[in-house]
Amino acid sequence: MAKFDGRPMLGAGVNYMPFKPRMEDGMMMGGENMVMPMVTMTLPIYRKKTNAKIRESEYLKEAASLSRQKTENLLTMEWANAFRDWEDAERKIELYTEQVKLVDQTINLLLTAFSSNGRDFTEVLRAQQLLLDYQLKRINAINQQYQSLAMLEMLASSDAQLK
Fold first, then answer.
1. Cα distances (Å, whole numbers) of residue 118 to 106, 111, 126, 127
2. How many whole angstroms separate alpha carbon 75 and alpha carbon 106?
3. Smallest Cα–Cα separation from 35: which of 52, 19, 54?
4. pTM of the entire structure?
5. pLDDT of residue 100
6. Taking all residues of the chain, what is their mean pLDDT, rounded to a whole number?
7. 35, 14 in Cβ contact below 8 A?
8. Separation between Cα atoms, residue 100 and residue 134, nearest integer Å
């Protein structure tokens, strides 16, 4: 449109005005309707305005392109973060599962030692506390994994709508 504004324009038209007869200073005035043909021509002399409009439209086009690229980059970054969180949660689940197994074996050994000795019951309690801590951390890791999976699904569905 900015390029078209820089070109000469021609226009043609008809102007129609109805008149009603009226009295003015004791004389009847008006009466016939007026028809006036009109022709217009516009020559763009000042090119700065047109060139500025053209540059503005180019800048707006570039801004839209950069905005789209920024959105794509943000989506890619969020996808990478969600995938990283999912992998991190997967590693933590494996780690805490192994830790729970080891602490379980430790508790069995401590219980056997306690039943033969009758001492170090506090060690059994500490081991059970440790077992509970690892189980809670495992549950938190599972929760984190589900949250990151939900984020990945959300990003995958919003990405499909953009294209």
1. 17, 9, 16, 16
2. 46
3. 19
4. 0.60
5. 95
6. 87
7. yes
8. 6
